[in-house]
Design brief:
This protein is α/β, with parallel strands linked by helices and 380 residues long. It contains nine helices and 14 strands.
């Protein structure tokens, strides 16, 4: 309304020939700094904010699902004309713009005619700030060997890990937990980071969307609970196990917080490793583990891994099992490893080395690069 009470004409922006907005039927356009998702369905144009309510995904780069625009980042949906959330989520609404077609040209109002509304979403339990609660030392063992829990077999890497955990309990009064990845149902990383760095969220986007996904237990232990993470892997074709890689791809969300928010979730924590294999490449596997856990913020004890390999030409794996079962020195090595790790964790906490603000953590010495247009970096 103007001062006389008459309706003010919207500030129309001419987007061009209307035919250009029918195919593709959903497009992201910019009106100065305002992103608008323009859509066409069943002969009706719609225009809503191009910025998703969740964490700002570009709605116009998503897809039309029926009458709803589906965000390309985590699939929230908003009505393509009204901006109202999908059924059950109507309290979530993105702003709506007016649309008209005149003389074959499409116009949208520069300013939206409705406001953004966000319904309160309870934060995920993992979202809380990590705080080390008082209590005895805590060791989280993660076994990454792949096996069928219904038909267990002797795992050399897991056996050494269990020796270390038992020692932590018995000799140091530590709380020690063992997580076997083979017993967890969890989805592989679905490449949210490849859509945009901001789309890779903490907690992990999959964890937030899928309450059935069981990697939550690992995140909880790693970020919120453990002082020491002791990870055991077999060597498979010269690399760590497939389950190890499936897990660490899902850990990108922890490292990405450092990249995009300077937020270091892992502080005063120590990682150490057990690596065993019938054949070789211990050092190559150790290099991967050390590199990845360093990127998360973990610190390492002196001599941060113990390993055993039968060598390139060994094919008698039944003898390898027997060798590890009977070899007291290997088990003692695993116990000494957890001793060093616990000692390093205690020294870290006493020093406060990692408790102060860590400026520019992460591997990028320079600021992360973004295109001037704000186009998300591709990581395809
Ligand atoms: S669903 Fe749109 S940003 Fe997450």
């Amino acid at each position: 309304m103007n001062a006389s009470g008459a309706q003010q004409e919207p500030d129309w922006v001419d987007l061009g020939p209307e035919a250009a907005f029918r195919d593709p039927p959903l497009q992201q356009v910019r009106l100065g700094t305002t992103a608008v998702a323009v859509s066409w369905r069943d002969g009706v144009f719609g225009a809503i904010s191009g910025v998703c309510n969740h964490v700002g995904g570009p709605l116009g780069e998503g897809r039309l699902q029926g009458e709803y625009v589906e965000c390309p980042w985590h699939y929230w949906k908003f009505h393509h004309c009204t901006g109202v959330g999908e059924p059950g989520f109507e309290a979530d609404q993105v702003p709506r713009h007016l649309v008209k077609v005149e003389a074959g040209r499409l116009f949208v109002s520069r300013r939206p005619v409705t406001k953004r509304a966000k319904s309160p979403h309870a934060p995920h339990a993992l979202e809380r700030e990590p705080v080390r609660a008082p209590g005895p030392p805590r060791v989280l063992g993660i076994s990454t060997t792949s096996l069928d829990p219904q038909h267990p077999r002797y795992s050399t890497s897991e056996a050494l890990l269990e020796s270390a955990l038992a020692h932590a309990r018995e000799a140091h009064g530590a709380e020690a937990r063992l997580i076997r990845l083979a017993e967890l149902e969890f989805r592989p990383c679905e490449g949210f980071y490849s859509r945009a760095a901001q789309a890779c969220t903490w907690p992990c986007s999959i964890t937030q969307m899928d309450p059935e996904d069981q990697l939550t237990e690992v995140y909880e232990g790693l970020v919120h609970w453990a002082d020491v993470v002791l990870l055991a892997t077999p060597i498979r074709w010269g690399s760590a196990s497939a389950l190890y890689f499936k897990m660490v791809e899902r850990m990108n969300c922890i490292q990405n917080q450092i990249t995009i928010r300077d937020r270091v979730l892992i502080r005063d924590k120590v990682a150490a490793f057990v690596i065993t294999g019938g054949q070789d490449n211990v050092q190559g596997v150790a290099g991967q583990l050390l590199s990845f856990f360093a990127e998360l913020g973990f610190v390492f004890p002196p001599f941060p891994y113990v390993a055993h390999s039968r060598g390139w030409s060994a094919e008698d794996m039944e003898n390898n099992v027997r060798y590890v079962q009977d070899h007291a020195e290997l088990h003692e090595g695993a116990r000494q490893l957890v001793e060093r790790a616990l000692g390093t964790a205690a020294a870290l906490r006493d020093s406060g080395l990692c408790s102060a603000k860590i400026e520019r953590g992460g591997r990028k010495a320079h600021r992360p690069h973004r295109e001037p247009t704000g186009t998300p970096e591709s990581n395809a």
